[in-house]
Design goal:
Shape: globular
Order of helices and strands: HHHHHHHHHHH
Number of domains: 1
Helix content: 55-70%
Mean pLDDT: 91
Low-confidence stretches: 294-298
Largest sheet: none
Length: about 300
Amino acid sequence: MRRREKIIAFIGIEFGLVILCTLPLFLLHAEPASLLMILTSVVFMFLPALTTLIVRRLAHEKGGLFLRLNLRKAWKEYLLAAFLPGVLEGIGVALYFFIFPSHFDLSLTYAAQLLVNNGLAADLPQLTIPVVVGIGLILILLSPLVFVNHIVAFGEELGWRGFLLPLLVEELGVQKAILLNGVLWGIVHAPLVCFELNYTGNYPGKPWSGILMMVLFATSIGVFLSWLTLKSGSIFPACIAHGAINAIREAPLLICLDIYNVLLGPKPSGLIGMIGFLVLGAVLLGKFAQYPKMQKDG
C-alpha cells in the first residue's frame, strides 16, 4: 500500500468508526454527561489506535509508530510535556478572569452546586486569591500524575501522531502536515461536540460554533503534541501532555460563575482559555521548518 493510500485509508476508516461509535448517541437521544455519553467518549479515544492497527494490517507494515521511550535523549521534552500544559492553561484562565472579572467566584458556587446535585453537604469555605493561585500550582504539579488520562490519550496519540503524522509529513512537509493533522483531529470530534463535549449549555451558534472552536483547539494543542513527538522521536511525551491537559481542563469552572461564555473560556477549549497554546503553536510552527524530514524511531 502506497503512502497516500495509507493516509486515505486511515482517514476513511477513522471517520467511519467514529460514525459507528457515536451513532447510538443520536439514535437513543442520549443526554450530555450520561453514562452512554461517557462510555462513548472513552471508546472514541481508542478508535485511532484501532484504525492504525487495521491500516497497518492491510499494508503488511510493522515497526515504527514512535514507540520507543527515548528518556535519555528526550528528558527535556518529557519535562515540558508534564508541566507546560498546566502553565499554559493557567495563563488562559488568568487572562479570562482579567477580561471578565465579574465571572470570578471565590465562594465556589459551582462546586457547591455539584455537591448539592449529588446529595452532599455544600458548606464550602470562601477562598482568597493566594489560595486559588496555590491550588492552581498544586494542580499543575499533579496533572501529569493522573496516569489513567495518559493511558486513554495513548489511543489518540498512537493514531494521530504516531501513525498519520509521519505519513503526512512525507507527503506535505512538516508545517502543512501538522496543521492538517490538527484540523482532522478536531473535525472528528464533531459528533461528541453535538452532545456537549467541552462546549456545554446554550451557546451562540450551537453546535456549529462549538465544532469550529474544537477544530481550533485541537489544531493549537496538536502543534505542541506534534512538536513533542517529532522532537523526541516518541509518542509518549505527547501522551503525557495530552493527559495533563485533560486532567485539569474542567478545574477553572470551580472558580467561575455559570454566566461564563463557553466559546471564550475559562477552560482551554475556549478562545481566551487556549491563548497560551495558540501563541506556543505559532512559535513552534516556525521551528518546524528545521525538521523537513523525520524518521520513525522504533
